[in-house]
Structures are given as C-alpha cells and as structure tokens.
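[Structure tokenization] protein backbone as discrete codes

[Encoding] learned vocabulary of local backbone shapes

[Begin record] amino acids and matching fold tokens:

___
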Amino acid sequence: AAGGPASATSSASAPAPGPVTPTPVSPPTQTAGRPTQGIAPGDDVIAETQVDARQLPEGYPRSLTRSLDGKTLILQAEEGGCRRISARVGDQTAQQVVVLVAVLSAPKGQMCPDYIREIKIPLVLTAPLGSRTVVLRQG
C-alpha cells in the first residue's frame, strides 16, 4: 500500500462529468501528516510500565507515544524561550531501548522570549519497540 501525500493525486486530478459525488467510500486512513493536539490519531500510547524514567532529572519530558508500526517513538515536550529540548536514541538491545534526553537552558541573566510550544521529537528505532522497555536518561 502506498502511503504519504503523493498518493492523493489520482482521485483529485479530474472531476467526473455529470453529478459530482464526493467520495463517501471510506473514512480517511492516512493520518500521518495531520497536525493535532495531544496524541495524533496514528500514534499509540506506550504504557507507563514500559517506560523507565527513574534516571531522568525532575522537569524533563517523559511523555512518549509510538507510531503504529512501533519503529518510531515520539517524545512530546514543552519548549520555551530559554529552554531547548533534544533527544536521541542510544543503545538498543533485545530488552530495552535507551533514549537520551537533553534540556538546555540559556546562560543566567540572558533575556528570554516568553512563550511555550509543544514539540514532538521523532526517534527512529532499528526494529519495532514491541515489549522492550524504554529507558529515559539524561544526555
């Protein structure tokens, strides 16, 4: 099955002559590029029991979802004026996947714009997460 925005060209290219009937054939299944608040329709929540965040300092983002195929984790976080969040995949074993999370703050005394925005950081795995534990660490 083809995915992505390029697959929509065939149905929208030329309207059929006669009465125009919009496509009530099936509900949309491609939710990939659609911006949403909270958890995107194509994402799946990872159970808290599958996430080990004990080594993360207080205030670090811990909210994770995964793509339906399990090969991408999505770290959801709030980023603002002087606070920048980054994350990357560390070691991946048969038992666990390590995600290194970094929170960078501006130097003391620097003026910061007053805003907060929701960000989603995709973390691509070499294999689907399955039942492996996600270990969040500072890094």
In short: Residues 38-138 form one domain. The chain has one helix and eight strands. The CA atoms of residues 78 and 133 lie 23 Å apart.
